[in-house]
From TrEMBL:
<dbReference type="GO" id="GO:0000155">
    <property type="term" value="F:phosphorelay sensor kinase activity"/>
</dbReference>
<dbReference type="InterPro" id="IPR036641">
    <property type="entry name" value="HPT_dom_sf"/>
</dbReference>
<comment type="function">
    <text>Involved in the transmission of sensory signals from the chemoreceptors to the flagellar motors. CheA is autophosphorylated; it can transfer its phosphate group to either CheB or CheY.</text>
</comment>
<feature type="domain" description="HPt">
    <location>
        <begin position="1"/>
        <end position="105"/>
    </location>
</feature>
<feature type="domain" description="Histidine kinase">
    <location>
        <begin position="160"/>
        <end position="399"/>
    </location>
</feature>
<keyword id="KW-0067">ATP-binding</keyword>
<dbReference type="InterPro" id="IPR004105">
    <property type="entry name" value="CheA-like_dim"/>
</dbReference>
<dbReference type="InterPro" id="IPR003594">
    <property type="entry name" value="HATPase_dom"/>
</dbReference>
<keyword id="KW-0808">Transferase</keyword>
<keyword id="KW-0418">Kinase</keyword>
<dbReference type="InterPro" id="IPR037006">
    <property type="entry name" value="CheA-like_homodim_sf"/>
</dbReference>
<keyword id="KW-0597">Phosphoprotein</keyword>
<dbReference type="InterPro" id="IPR036890">
    <property type="entry name" value="HATPase_C_sf"/>
</dbReference>
<dbReference type="Pfam" id="PF02895">
    <property type="entry name" value="H-kinase_dim"/>
</dbReference>
<keyword id="KW-0547">Nucleotide-binding</keyword>
<dbReference type="InterPro" id="IPR008207">
    <property type="entry name" value="Sig_transdc_His_kin_Hpt_dom"/>
</dbReference>
<dbReference type="Pfam" id="PF01584">
    <property type="entry name" value="CheW"/>
</dbReference>
Length: 544
């Protein structure tokens, strides 16, 4: 927590010094052209932001001086205070004092704001309330600690960090190759160098990734106003609780899921939360409750949006699945509840019965799922009729480097992203059963479709058959993957290890094969294809 507080303080200092530089520049411009409304508005904005930020982090001296200056410039904007020589001098002194206070926040002997300066600021303000210029005659000359200083922090464009992270990704691939070679040659000096290379590359990787992290609060804190606006339009009462604003995530990932989170929030208010009179009849509080939360789970950030609204009616969803032609009626009856809810993410699927200003315009949850798929994350929905709905997003902390489970099928190597890996089981072949042209197994009380990867990789997708007679061995290694509330078992020849990988896009013509999401290079120099769990799961669940 202390490290986080230090980070906040450093960010504040960097921003505050920028504000100070801008204020010094703008007030000089204003002295030349006192009627410039645009410059006055910008000075007022900078002082207001500085006051609020300083107060939030506990620098009350800075906040107090900024507040007095803000008041003075507000009077100048309203043409209640003249930009005379006496006033200009006091305002310049006040801004200089801000710079001194900001530059010394880390100094245990930081100076207090000058009583003379504070008195001068009060005098120029009181001269307006007294409606006389006589007070200005009491202004005393005050001179400050012109010291020039530069911030220890710099702002970097995100595209520069993107490029740097890509280079780190390439370095990781070469590092793993060198480590593998050093083990093969069994040379002491090479082992020592490769070991050192591993350490510094790992440190470089985490340093670059850390530089890209931002607090989810930078997005979450925009929602109170959004929720208020939607609630007013929908004529509903909403209480929003935000948890975990200080959880950190890659800035690009947060940017990509911004629209998705907004879409889910609109749906929760428009379709999830009932109106006050309806809630009272159901013995609920008239005010609907929504929780927006974030938490860390190792290399994953989990975002949840929870509402205590009417929930999702499973029977309505089952009817819609049939009516929209996704499945025949007899097949829908066999679906588990979690599988039923997964159809909410299918293109064109919606339960909205009316169009509002914020939802029901044909933009469904498939847009949300596609955005999360694009960053290698996953989303699930849980709901109980009359109680509420929870949308959970599992997001990677980084886009470029991802954890994966490596496996082997025949002579080839494959990687399955850990984000989609549920579990690994050793399953006796006798427990696999044929249903039509597919294999299924009962695993922990769930009937799961099983895919025999050895056969899948050797035939066209449409010709795949999971006949049990083709299996080799009495026991099968099965990797259970999950996507969109659905599970699938993948039979592999052998399990290798868990490893961070750098995923690269496939080149033509193999980039058209939908079951592959990319490629990576292992330390041994072997090419390793990354499986697209989403594409494989969609295909086989539809066949089942």
């Amino acid at each position: 927590m202390k490290a986080r507080e230090q980070e906040y303080k450093e960010i504040f200092i960097a921003e505050a010094l920028e504000y100070y530089d801008a204020l010094s520049r703008h007030i000089s411009d204003l002295e030349k052209n006192p009627q410039d409304e645009q410059v006055l508005a910008e000075i007022f904005r900078l002082l207001h932001n500085l006051k609020a930020n300083a107060k939030a982090i506990g620098y009350l001296n800075i906040s107090d001086v900024a507040h007095k200056l803000e008041t003075a410039f507000g009077l100048i904007r309203n043409k209640e205070l003249s930009f005379s020589d006496e006033v200009v001098t006091v305002l310049f002194d006040g801004i200089d004092m801000l710079g001194e206070l900001i530059g010394n926040v880390d100094n245990p002997n930081s100076p207090e704001p000058s009583p003379a300066l504070l008195r001068n600021l009060d005098i120029i303000v009181s001269s307006v309330s007294e409606n006389t210029g006589e007070e200005l005659s009491k202004v005393q000359k005050y001179y400050t600690s012109k010291n020039l200083s530069l911030s220890d922090l710099i702002y970097i464009q995100i595209k520069k960090l993107d490029h740097l992270l890509n280079l780190v990704g390439e370095l990781i691939i070469d590092r793993d190759r060198i480590l593998s070679i050093s083990k093969e040659l069994d040379h002491d000096d090479l082992k020592s160098v490769s070991s050192h290379l591993y350490r510094i590359t790992e440190e470089l990787q985490f340093s670059v990734m850390d530089a890209r992290l931002v607090n989810v609060g930078s997005l979450f804190n925009k929602f109170p106003r959004i929720v208020r606006d939607i609630a007013v339009a929908e004529k509903k009462e909403i209480n929003l609780e935000i948890i975990g604003q200080d959880i950190q995530i890659d800035r690009n990932i947060l940017q990509i899921i911004t629209d998705s989170l907004l879409h889910l929030m609109r749906n929760a208010i428009s379709h999830g939360i009932e109106k006050a009179d309806v809630r009272k009849k159901q013995k609920k509080s008239p005010q609907g409750n929504i929780i927006l939360s974030a938490q860390n789970d190792r290399d994953t950030v989990i975002l949840r949006l929870i509402d205590d609204g009417k929930g999702i009616d499973q029977s309505e969803v089952r009817k819609a699945i049939v009516n929209r032609g996704f499945l025949p009626a007899d097949a829908v009856e066999d679906l588990r509840d979690t599988e039923v809810l997964s159809y909410l993410f299918e293109p064109g699927f919606s339960l909205a019965k009316e169009v509002t200003e914020f939802s029901g315009r044909g933009v469904g949850l498939d847009v949300v799922k596609n955005a999360i798929d694009s960053i290698g994350g996953r989303i699930r929905v849980d709901s109980q009729k009359g109680i509420g709905t929870t949308f959970t997003m599992y997001l990677p902390t980084s886009i470029a480097v991802k954890g994966a489970l490596l496996c082997q099928v025949e002579e080839n190597y494959y990687a399955i992203p850990l984000m989609h890996t549920d579990s690994v089981v050793s399953l006796p072949s006798s427990e696999l059963h044929e249903i039509g042209d597919l294999l299924v197994a009962d695993i922990k009380g769930e009937t799961i479709t099983i895919v025999y990867l050895r056969e899948l990789f050797n035939v066209d997708l449409d010709q795949y058959s999971g006949r049990k007679s083709k299996l080799e061995g009495d026991v099968q290694n099965v990797i259970i993957v999950t996507y969109n509330n659905r599970k699938l078992g993948l039979i592999v020849d052998s399990l290798l290890r868990q490893q961070d990988i750098v995923i690269k896009a496939l080149s033509k013509p193999v980039n058209t094969i939908e079951i592959y999401a990319g490629v990576t290079l292992l330390g041994s120099g072997k090419v390793c294809l990354v499986l697209d769990v989403a594409a494989i799961t969609r295909y086989f669940i539809a066949r089942r």
